[in-house]
Request: fold
Amino acid sequence: MTPWQEFYSTVRDVDWPDCNDEQGFHDLPDWIKHECMLVHGYQPGQYQSQSNLVYRAFPIQTKTSCQLKWTWSTVYLATGKTASCHRTNRHKFDTEVFDFHNTPEKIKDRSRMLQGLWPEKGCDYCKNIENAGGQSDRLTNLDMPGIHAPPEIDIDPDAVDVTPRILEVYFDNICNLKCLYCGPHFSSLWDAENKKHGTFRDKGLMIPGVFTKDPDIETNKQKLFHWLESNCHHLTNFNILGGEPLFQKEFDQCLDFFNRFPAPHLDLQIFTNLNATEEKIDSTIYTVKKLIDQKKIKKFTVTASLDCWGAEQEYVRFPLDLGIWKRNFETLLNHDWITLIVGSTITPLTIRTLPDLVGQINGWRKIRPVYHYFNSVNSPSYMFIDIFGDFFVEDFNKALSMMPQDDPEQSNTHGYLQGIARQSAANLINRSEVQKLKTFLDEMDRRRNTDWRKVFPWLDPVFTQILSLEHRP
Reply:
């Protein structure tokens, strides 16, 4: 029974009509609406977004249990796929039923975790980091205040068919950048570039030339909003990704949605490359602040994506303008009601100037808190940090030495990067993947009229040294 249904069943008289959905309140006779509001203190919409949750540690404590597997859903509308977090394998779900959180694959994974087993596939990222002695996403989120288990767990601690608390949505692939480790699924510029140049194959590398969106993407977007109408009151976090949210109409549609369907306990978060106009940044700040002031959402978080600093970053996140990013970030910095996170993806091309970014963040932290989170690339494999073995140990150590550990949040972040460093150093050089990376960079230079040898002068001799080993007896 929903919070609205509990309220209505308590106050209704026997001659009142049924009203199982809070949206139906507006269709009730005026005298019933007046009694609900004046006698019983009801405020229209208040149960639509109720999420007064008392924090409790995740009760499932097997050796492989993952709170995210029960709590989190990622939905990729451009491909009609879902995942239980942004690390696991994506799979198709039944868009007619539109139950993206309880697919057969997810229920099977939860059942295995209840037995202390890892899922058969899809959780290798966390498994490998833990095997290397690092801090995985699973461990980080297992007992984190602010993350709440599904409501079904309170009744049945072994429940596997549950309601999500965190929803992460990739509405479309419209984007103004084409980052090296991205692709057409998340970037319309990547898609256009691939269509222009066609399929590329050379030295074990293949870049496909065709990407086809789910033909029902627009219909499924509407189904997603319909799902939110019935379920947003269960959510504590709603993350909007892309593409690029600041270039997508769906972000504005979400702001309008929460204006009509308030969720006063919700943390609304966007993941953005911040290469938008000043006018877009200002209008977003104004609109979201109004929602917060009117208690229609609780919190606004901006995760500003940036991996390193300097020309290296503009090459990797092509065609990023670092000056525009810095201007927009410092505009957000002046609004202390916005939670600010810098999200960094670790790759062989960004780790060397990660310390420069850490220095920038340390400077911004003198103004107010700025959080720094890390992740590794899921694909393509030639962007994995560990293909160079222990080559980047000194770069990791330098970045780690600059990172403060003054509170548990900072210590967690430090431990997370340390885990990635350990995973990287624990592996041997993968020559075939290194060859793919070199081939890939050469192809990107041909397409984009760039010059990786100029931007990364240290890299060419490293390629030569590693690849020449293949030909030794």
The mean pLDDT is 92. The chain is about 40% helix and 15% strand.
